[in-house]
Amino acid sequence: MSALMQVLPYLIAAYVFLTGCYGLATSRNLIHAVGCLSVCQVSTYILLLAVGYRSGGTAPVFSDIKPGTRPLVDPVVQALTLTDIVVGATVTALLLALVLQIVKRHGTLDPDELRELRG
Amino acid sequence: MHHLLPLLVAVPLLGAALLAAAGRRLPRPAAELTGLLVCAATAALALVLLLNSSPPVVEWAGGWVPVGGESVGIEVIGDGPSLGMATLVSLLTLSALAYSWRYFDEPPRGHAGSFPALMLVFQGAMCGFALAGDLFNAFVFFELMSVVAYALTGFRIDEAKAVQGALTFGVVNSLGAYAMLTGIGLLYARTGELSMSKIGRGLDTAAGHGGPDALVLAAFVLVLTGLLVKAATVPFHFWLPDAHAVAPTPVCMLLSGVMVELGVYGVWRVYGTVFAGPGGIPAADLTRALVTLGVLTAVTGAVMCWYQRHIKRLLAFSTIAHTGLFLVAVGVLTPEGDDGAALYILGHAGVKAALFACAGALLDRFGSVDEHELHGRARELRATGVLFAVGGLALAGLPPFGTGLGKAVSEEAVGGPLTVVYVLASAVTAGAVLRVAARVFLGLGPPPEDTDAYETSGSAERPETSGLLRRVPDTMTTVPAVLLAAALAMGTVPGFGDLVARSVNEAGSGGARASAAWTLHGVLLGLVSAALAVALATAAVTRSHRPSAPAWMTPLRRLQSGHVGDYVAWLLLGSTLLAALALPGVLGG
Amino acid sequence: MSDALILVALLLVAATATAAVAQRDPARQALVLSVLGVFLAVLFTVLQAPDVGLSQLAVGAALTPLLIMLSVRKIRRRRRDRDGAR
Amino acid sequence: MSRRLRLWLLAVGGAGLAAVLAAACLELPGFGGRSHPYGTRAVRASLARHTANTIASVNFDQRAYDTLGEMSILFAAVLGCVVLLRQARDEHRERPRPAQVARPVRRYALLVVPAALVCGLYIVAHGQLSPGGGFQGGVVAATALHLLYLGADYRALERVRPLGAFEATDALSVCAYLVLGLAGVLAGTAFLANTLLPYGTFNTLSSGGFVPLLNAAVGMEVASAVVVLLANFLDQAVEIVEEEAG
Amino acid sequence: MNGWILAATVELGGGGAAALWGVTTGPTARRVVAQNLTTAALCPALLLLAQGYGRPAYVDLALLLALLGPVGTLVFARLLHEDLEGRRPSAWGLTYAVAGVGAAVVIALCAVTGPGRAMVKLLVIGALLIGGNLIASRALSGGFRGVLGG
Predict the structure, then answer these.
(1) Is A16 in Cβ contact with C47 (below 8 Å)?
(2) Where are the beta strands (DSSP E) in D98-211?
(3) How far is D93 from chain B (nearest CA, A)?
(4) How many domains does chain C fold into?
(5) Which GO terms describe its cellular component (chain D) (predicted)?
């Protein structure tokens, strides 16, 4: 159990990344593809937070505990993940805006049917 | 002085925010003037800082100067290459803004300031990326630069191609960025640091005498995947022609002139600071990986470039070919190679931006960027034609252009059979440009017949101005002329090459010095490329019928399918390839 | 014990991510993504990152599904208009 | 490229990357390890500057430069969405018809909107003390406003949403953040240096130097940015219609 | 180690798995109901976790979920009303059961915390959670009948 727990969170992050990529590559609907891209990004959250976790630790937020009384997890990765989440939301919004325009101009959501930009 | 470094990011962002805030009230000329002024101020600041960058300076954002070698702040690097890139970015943005003066027909209603504001954010983001000495900070600015670039690429929402190209660009680049972030996470897990130099030291300490392990390899592959996607290296390159062919011309100037090159710069910076130590990736493996991918990129880019008829797309493929050449020069890991790449990037930025500017003039005058359709129609645009042809020759590396100097120094650095790649790639891409010049501006040769090949034509494009222009405005010819003059100056001003070489080597090669000046060898090779380019163009134009692309080209062209899913699959395959190329050193270590 | 909790949260997230990719209909995918957002928030709490959990809740549970659903609605409305015009 | 070929490519690339990632995971320090040098330093620095929430301290003090980039991404994305979702040449606006919503839902929406706004404000204001901060609170406040659309109708939302003002607020908050940063340069310290204001008493609302100010700037930026973003999508979904069919 | 975390694990495992199953299978209408119940099932788990870790600050997460969860459901109820038309989903038994669990958790926590600001917060969360859920369920089972345009 514990030997597995040593690597499982990282492996799950890798698995989620690859799953997202699979969905992205085989998607038949551009909105679905944007959703898959956000799944890919979820893997980076998991990886970063797993890296910063410490067994028995607690969040370094001292509004309700005294400093120095309990072991702490890494605050830096949490700050990084926060930035990452903002990035994810904005990229999703921007790509969805582009998808809406694609539907207007091409009349389809299926990437297989987009027949411009070849060769 | 070093406190001013972050201002290279802050000033354009402030300008953009003010433009966006006042955007509803501001008349259009005022908005564009503000954009130009802010951009020019940043460029001036970058120049001043560049002149004071020897010895290199470091700034800690937030004033978190290290205590006992440890800091919690973000490192901002002000050395020759970083400030040089920032200056290049600023000057090129300035020329793009000048080019787009009164250019777009219809700014979004009530948002006159949005185009200059986006351009300023783009400038700030690229400066921030160039100055980043902290890996996560580099990721943030990488992402900022990408986000703005997606929006700018899709700016012309009425165009079917534009929105498709922007989406492809967005998906592939975002995925690359996430791969890079995963790599950063792995490095943080190993070393517990984010500053590039500290990660490098941390890797060396962690490795001890054992050399790199699988984690270092994975981190290397993932971080480089992100950067190489930006640098449009084969097989991560597919998004580039799709995006560059459809973006508004001033944006193309920036994308092709400097954003793609920032990917190469990122590779140089990250390898040199993070992975160059004994705990990183051995030099031989990096050379193998970069030279292989670089040659592949140069060849693919050149071949695809030759068989394009959409002029902007042709130029985009030529950017790919040249990026491959830069990567090869960086990949040989010698001070001379770095110098060559730096000079080549500088010269190429001026030339390529000028060529795009000329293509934009064609688009706005005739509503087409198709080589076949425009055959002989642009005779009246003498100035643009001359500039386009001169740009083509400069692209071939004709002495004394800056591109020629960069190419000559790079060729000297890589030596041996790789020189052939340099000569051929630059000759073929330049030949394609000259062929277009001859057909479009002079009407030479018989009009090519249309084939129903698998290709993107450039006809029936909507001009970017309100209606077709009756004559090309002066800004649209002055800007490319100035850019070409700058490229010429880089090769002719005595001592410029040495100056660049000195500042690059001071930052990167640990004191090793190389000089970068014209040699007989280099001049001859430059002349050979230019002659070859002219010969190729002449042969293409004078052939009585247009030879359709040979059969072996068809699969290569089919790969460029415009399909997001294909590009994602290629991205995964590319990172696997990168891992395989770098694997021997890890196994041996 | 806290290992078991982390394990449960991780497995839920992995399963939901797989489901989100497997749902090919965007509206249904948005539903799964919103559930994924909530599971992730719980995972982040378990990993002692309440700040991140909060923003994941705000973004994942409400904002992203709203954006996706608005896009879906736009496309459906467009299709309906087209069919009506025909 | 055919679907089959793409799947093959994907399989090869995916397998290779999976192998690399798995090998890397096995080399990673075990999950839950104790060595976090940067994290330990960050906690120390945060306590030295009287900021109770270390994550806020990292975001708005130690790595405030990253947050500048982050908020510029949001700013740029909003600007981009405004540009991309503008009314194209061949489109016009149609007034949406008023919607009828069951009374309990309407009542719930009207009750929760103020509660959510207060909650968002609370999360922003306590950002440097307890979990939360400008980003989280801003999104909550902005999303809550859209309950008016969900519970009532689009016109009700439009009445409380002067879009121009929100766009200006979005941009001006970015300005405010930058000006706070530039104050450090003018004072001769460094960009975004948190040395000008007193650090206050630990665990109170005014502690942490300029952390609460930056936090508030981000909160305003995010709230107005999300409102503008959603407004553009709502316009597309509800109002903007293409002119000719086919 | 304490019972709170154990309870949270059980709640997360059971509720989460059920929610996942519900939201990935069956007709769209059923899935929206499952999405709604996810909020109701996981919000108490977050409260239990806050208590188990001894961190009152974590309660904010539950507050936010109680506030935004129903908003999310209303998004789907509003924008998917075509799909919900006709086959009005209702799982009132399950809804009340989950609401009951939520109420029980809130009451248990109130008993432990004792009177004070923390208790007020808990009660607010409880009210928002249960009220929001019932309203959202109501909306799904026909609250938007007769909705036009907009």
Answers:
(1) no
(2) none
(3) 14
(4) 1
(5) plasma membrane
